[in-house]
Amino acid sequence: MPSTTSIDLPPPALRGRAWLAAVGRSSSPRGRSAAASTVLDSLAAIGFAAGLALAIGRLPLGWQAAVPGALLAVASVCARGLLARTAIGAASRQAAEVKQAVRRRVFAAALAREGREPSSLGSALSVAVDAVEALDGWYVRYAPARTAAVASPLVVVVAMALASPVCALIVAATFVPFVIAMALAGGAAAHEARRQFESMARLSGRFADRLRALPAILAFDGAARAGEELQIVSEELAERTLKVLRIAFVSSAALEFFAALSVALVAVYCGFGLLGLLPFRPPERLDLVRAVFVLVLAPEAYLPMRRLAQAYHERETAEAVAEVVRPLADEPSAPGRAGSAEPPAVRFDGVSLAYSDSDASVLDGFDLDVRPGEFVALVGPSGSGKTTVLRLALGLIQPSGGRVTLDGRDAAPGGAAWVGQSPVVTPGSLAENIRLARTDVSDAEVARAAALAGLPADSLDRPVDERGGGLSGGERRRLALARAFLANASLVLLDEPTADLDAASEAEAIQAIAGLARGRTTLVATHNAALAAMADRIVRLAA
């Protein structure tokens, strides 16, 4: 099975950029390679300026005299292209490693939180799938640009000083208002970027949670209200996005102004100096080669800082994401289950459940006794409360009235294997996704669970993305079943495990469920007659 990059996430005591920097240091040396390549780009820029200046300066002596300088300029351009490709490639691979590690931890935390905080699962998954993607900008663009913005301008100014100390002084003097403008723009953008991300996370989480609760929303005629809530949050996100764009536009204009002013001052000084029209006696003597050299090099002094300014918004977004991801990634993963010696008895005693914002009851005086090791199928029309019964047995929700017990104790999260309709998928291999059920098991145990669920051994190395790309509907169901086999819990709860499957996949899933239910207390909510017929008892719920 393929190995994944091991990244030790820092403790949650670190905040914002400190947490991001610590994650980057623990990921791989690729970040340092990207930063070094970005800094070396300034040396290639100096080579290009020198080659172009030499070629132009010697052109009056014949084109043959200009060839060495032209070759140096061409070689420098090629070197810059290779360095840029190296930097982007290394930074992109580092970002992919970090995002994979963080997503893996957040997904594991989401599984562990499923029992304790079911209402927050949509937000957690939204963070893992969408918000974590914002970390890409920090590692691909901001971190290398930050290093280059410190070192590269100094290298360029020193090179300019060797040709024209006055031009170097002009460029260095304009750094001051340039940096002040960056700081002011960054401070203004930081607050708005955080508010924008909070709105985006709120919208994504609200949408995911409403999507999960769609059957209940439709059952209680809450579609209009849910739509209004999503519209309000969407308009808030649009407004805050526009504020960020306004700040970005103003800050870009200010930075471009100071960069253009510096280059213009250098150009005026060189032009009047070569013509001997300066109103003062310069402390140096410029020639054509030196003038061309500093003119070509002057914009390069600002290029690293302009790149940093362009990536500054991504820094603020990444820091806002880090504040949300940091506590989630530090959550302990779902604990491994070694299984109980005996399957439990499950009892529903006069259970009622009504949502706080509705007068209607999902369940009203529901009674059910499930014997240890019994396989019970819950059947009934949509909205009859089948999934609600499973969630009550799992301890995800508490009844409004009555009591749900496992072996005489109140039902509580943990200790049961849950097979839902949409299993959580993380980027990595299929085997690594199965292992989320128990992280303390061997590869052989993972392979055995996969075989029991009907997944062939040669499919375990198959890569899967965070959205489940590469898995068919039947394979998703078998992935959930394999996790249940690996969890080895004595109570198994299945929610429509054969929904939306073709005939062949459905038959394979039913066969796997029969094996999973053997020796365990099993409750399954289903519309499938073949699956229900396999149960020891069928309980019909009315709408």
Concise account of the structure shown:
The chain is α/β, with parallel strands linked by helices and about 550 residues long.
Name of the level-1 CATH class of the largest domain: Mainly Alpha
Number of strands: 11
> What is the chains' assembly state?
single chain
Q: Which strand order does the major sheet show?
A: 6-9-10-3-11
CATH topology description of the largest domain: ABC transporter transmembrane region fold
Shape: elongated
What is the share of helical residues? Answer: 55-70%
Number of domains: 2
* N-C termini distance: 47 Å
The SS-based structural class is: alpha/beta
Element-by-element helix/strand order: HHHHHHHHHEEEHEEEEHHEHEHEHE
User: What portion of the residues fall into strands of 2 or more residues?
Assistant: 5-15%
> How much is the radius of gyration in Å?
32 Å
Summed over residues and divided by their number, the pLDDT gives a mean of 78
**Largest sheet features:** 5 strands, parallel
Number of helices: 15
- Supply the CATH architecture of the largest domain: Up-down Bundle
